[in-house]
Amino acid sequence: MTEKSQEIEEIQEDQDVKETAEVQEVQDVPETEEAQEEQDVPEAEDAQEEQDVLEAEDAQEEQDVLEAEEVQEAQDVHDDEPQMPDEEQPDEEQPDVSQPDQEITTTVESVVEAVLFASDESLTDARLASIVETSAKQVRQHIKNLNEKYQANNNAFRIEQIAGGYQMLTLSPYNLWLKKLLRVRGDNKLSPAAMETLAIIAYKQPVMRADIEAIRGVAVGEVIRSLSYKGLVKIVGRAEVLGRPMLYGTTKKFLEVFGLNTLKDLPKAQELKEPSL
């Protein structure tokens, strides 16, 4: 074989190698694109599915809380409606136990006392003033006078400031005997999980559900829904973050149930005692 023939063969061999490489590269590109496309489709579907689930959970949670608030509001309206007396049934002759008429002199102070005695919720000084038809300043003075009389007579009750208003309450030393009389309704009992969640909301409000779950380490959706049905928790707004999650806070009923005038009356962390083991 001549030197010229050898050069021709080498050139031909180099050209064949280049053509083979180009063919292989052209073949690999579609395969790579197809493989990448196949990989991207499940990832995109998973991301979309996860986003849909989160949006559905948020929508369901918001709907449940709103329904709870509507139920509570309807219950409050029903409680405020005057109850019609039952039809009187003809009874057998009853003995006359009526007391002889006595003249009762009413004063502004006694009217304030009567209204507070009959009310099952706290009343603001402005509302009391509108009922009694006097000024709020006079109402506060009458309440002060009444408490001084109660203390002088060693009465078992006082007029206390609760949830931004005034309410007649028994003194704490009588709790031992009152517990024997009262039976706490089952729907007002709070589980340890509910108490923990309510405490976090009370101290951290307004607070997102994610923050509550981060503190407790467990899901709290059902617990928040239960607290909403009991009228202790409500939606107070939306956070200015991605997704605008709902913010939760406590209600006026929360203050009434726990005997607080404002949230500032919550015990400080230093005042809280660790539970005894």
Give the tags.
277 residues, mainly alpha, Arc Repressor Mutant, subunit A, two-stranded antiparallel sheet, 9 helices, 5 strands
List low-pLDDT spans: 82-90
CATH architecture of the domain at 184-271: Orthogonal Bundle
Task: Kindly provide the radius of gyration, computed on alpha-carbon positions and rounded to a whole number of angstroms.
Answer: 37 Å
Helix content: 55-70%
CATH topology of the domain at 184-271, by name, is Arc Repressor Mutant, subunit A
Report the top-level CATH class of the domain at 184-271.
Mainly Alpha
Give the percentage of residues in beta strands.
5-15%
Instruction: Please report the total strand number as a whole number.
Output: 5
Largest sheet: 3 strands, antiparallel
| Shape category | rod-shaped
What does this structure look like?
Helix content is 57%, strand content 9%. It is mainly α and 277 residues long. Among the domains are: 108-179, Arc Repressor Mutant, subunit A; 184-271, Orthogonal Bundle (Arc Repressor Mutant, subunit A). The strands form two sheets. A three-stranded antiparallel beta sheet has the order 3-5-4. Strands 1-2 form a two-stranded antiparallel ribbon. The protein is rod-shaped and about 145 Å long. The chain contains nine helices and five strands, in the order H-H-H-H-E-E-H-H-E-H-H-E-E-H.
